[in-house]
């Protein structure tokens, strides 16, 4: 392998790692909800769409960045409260499968609502981050992806600090560890659920903004969940750290596979390759890299 | 007035549903629309069907219909899904006086071919569709008007040749085709191979998996190849992502050429600055300076009857495609009326009209569409009608035409098309039509 | 003599009950086999009954896996695709009669199902569910990628051959309907026998408690794989009906993730681990959006454009799904049982 091909491989790997951060970003939203309520929230993709569409429509109406951000956050909080009242509470103690189907129903509602409110047009979202690459030792690195990674990193740091150092965060962890024990010591489960859905809404907004700046804000934004699902399986549904590590791993392997294995089978293998990677790892560790070992039944 | 206009199709639909409709009372020609205004391809659907309806509206309001025959339509939402398209087809096919179907979806069109052939009603797949339906000898009722995927491929290569200074200059050039990972995306692979062989350029074709929201790996490969041009055969979200990823990899955007489904405002605006300088093929120019658009604005939009909710989109690529589609449908009806009489025509009579749809550049000018599209020359054998293409460049706000009207290499492609359609005919046991079959028309 | 009468007198009421219980089934079959072909118009058959039959069958297949064996799959549409493409190729390349190519298609789907069922030996719950997505994306990719599957068709969408059995053409709406109906009826009866037989007991044992099942000697691994294979085979046949009898075109895009979710909805809403649940669920999924679109069309047409109406429908559909899950966790099938009991109650009293 000569120097140039080596550099190229490094470049592919770096590009993959940065893409992986974007996958992890979406996956974290799933993890938050799964961890505290055992729900695999398929509506996360619709929440990403809803948040980004609301934000971009507000800015197009002339609101400044901060104003639109605050209003969208309010909308996501409202959404969290509504979901707790209208979906989670009535469905408490139902099987995980029922809850999963309910979130599918929720995703229909959110997709419909988002487009009904803000239209079906494609929007441009400009975060003011440069899209031009810069060069380090012959390797192109995208400024945008680096900034996105930094934002994702900051968000994870905030989340971690929140879990570790605040009372609400402590309550989250208590619920995640043992719901019944948490109830027994008097924690208000409903409030925690509202908080956690709101937090997932915030994560959805951040993911929506970064992905929206890459794709344009449009219906296809909700499809980013398909990139996040293998990350979840690999990292474990209930581990934030797992989501990040798995995101990086999947991002890098899938890009390397597409470039180096793809030509042998005709390319375009990214769609399923991530799942294959996840499956292979799962055969060794059935609860993902960092997931808790749980026996589940439907 | 406006409200009544809007509610008229609804009343019509309601009457049909309740079964109260038996015959067409007045002379009316009907267009059932399998539109998609929701879902991933909503932007294209609202523009295209909006333009189509706007033109039908113009003909009704300005001319009182086609020779006094009113044009009517009814819509069913498909979300671009085949089974919803089939449901709408089944629901609307009993409407009286149907002129033609215009689904603007390959999947839906395919699922209808058997049905409309039995019904003897034309199926229009403007700018897309199954390439071998160009052969009218095998597919009497299907019309891929203006441009089929093969002609598009040839048109793009001819344009690159003209930019490089002639077909000979293509020798040794390197072209990458980046295609959507779907049957649609793969359709032109053999044609690019053929043209590469013919002109001697180096060719690499790279697939982007659906939906195309991640293209890091593909563009790194492109960067390694260092091609002279990248042809984008995209669809939906794949297009803006290709443009931004190209920028991130330092590939010059003015050497990316988009195909006919990568050429709209919706494909470039999300990419922002990354799209400035991007060029794409089109059969119809965008903009509203053409007389027919001015009349639509005056007669339809100023009266509050426009179909687009956002008047900013008047003259956009899909809207103008819808208008051109309207012109072609209406003119086919008009041509058929000259033969069969100024009344409601049967589907088969309209089919005859489409098979004689010859609009010279002069006729196109009379219709107020000079430079909007070039011309069309449909015959019973050639259902595409030799549409010309042009190329438009995005300047960040609008598309500007940057080339002459270019003719694809039809004679090169025809034998390939015939081979495919004859195989289909053999497989399905279809007898190949002759001239005599054309004038055998099922009348009223 | 009296002994005999006594003997025959006591079993009589149950038999009467059994007859009574079978009555709705007889009525349904009579309507399906006699009334529909004679009376139904094309719209009813083409737009409602054919998708209903195909999706019911797919629902039956998934219900075997999810409802009876407790393994969740999000990749059902992939097996429909395998069935459809396999039948197309067996028909094209071997020129087999339709029932034979359909049977082979079922075998092909079962084989693919076995492969993608292997993770179930290690994985549980959502880990397994999400892993089945691998089938979804891989199959779609492979069918797209290798032109051989679609016989080198340039656009990758293939026209299904006209169907017919033993020289009897069935390509008209009624013919295709009867073909689908006979297939669905036969498989339903077969499945009914299986789930009520020893295999059915094994499946339920595995679902309810794997460890306990192993203790009492149920071959857990074999049972799971059996469920995957049989379920995929049935879903594969559903794919054949979908492609050959309903749409009459075969394209990979039609068997996407949305279709898989649709089938899962059918099973959950219809009622897990019931045969009739699949039919009830499919009925709701096929008919409800149409009714909804007629209703919203009636109220909003002319005021709102069709796009807006579609969005309202989507919101309504999502709401109904959630309300339904809240109000009736055991699905439509449970509602039907309750209704029956309530109808029976006055007579008993």
Q: Average pLDDT value of chain A?
A: 87
Question: Strand order, biggest sheet of chain A?
Answer: 1-2
The percentage of residues in β strands of chain A lies in under 5%
**Regions of chain C with pLDDT < 50 over 5+ consecutive residues?**
1-13
Total strands of chain C: the figure is 4
Instruction: Report the C-alpha radius of gyration of chain A, rounded.
Output: 20 Å
Protein name (chain A): Branched-chain amino acid ABC transporter permease
Main location (chain A): membrane
GO molecular function (chain A): transmembrane transporter activity
Membrane topology (chain A): Multi-pass membrane protein
Folded structure, characterized:
- The complex is a heterotrimer of chains A (298), B (444) and C (349).
- With 298 residues, chain A is an all-alpha fold.
- Chain A contains twelve helices and two strands, in the order H-H-H-H-E-E-H-H-H-H-H-H-H-H.
- In chain A, 73% of the residues lie in helices and 3% in strands.
- The N and C termini of chain A lie far apart (51 Å).
- Chain B folds into two domains: 2-147 and 286-377 and 418-438, Rossmann fold (3-Layer(aba) Sandwich); 149-282 and 391-408, Rossmann fold (3-Layer(aba) Sandwich).
- Chain B is 43% helix and 13% strand.
- A seven-stranded mixed sheet of chain B has the order 6-5-7-8-9-12-13, with helices on both faces. In chain B, strands 1-2 form a two-stranded parallel ribbon.
- In chain B, strand 1, helix 2 and strand 2 form a beta-alpha-beta unit.
- Chain C contains 15 helices and four strands.
- Chain C has helices at residues 2-9, 12-39, 42-68, 76-94, 98-117, 125-131, 133-145, 173-195, 198-208, 210-215, 220-247, 257-270, 275-300, 306-327, 332-348, and strands spanning 158-159, 164-165, 168-169, 249-250.
- Mean pLDDT of chain C is 86; it is low at 1-13.
- The interface between A and C is large, with 52 and 45 residues.
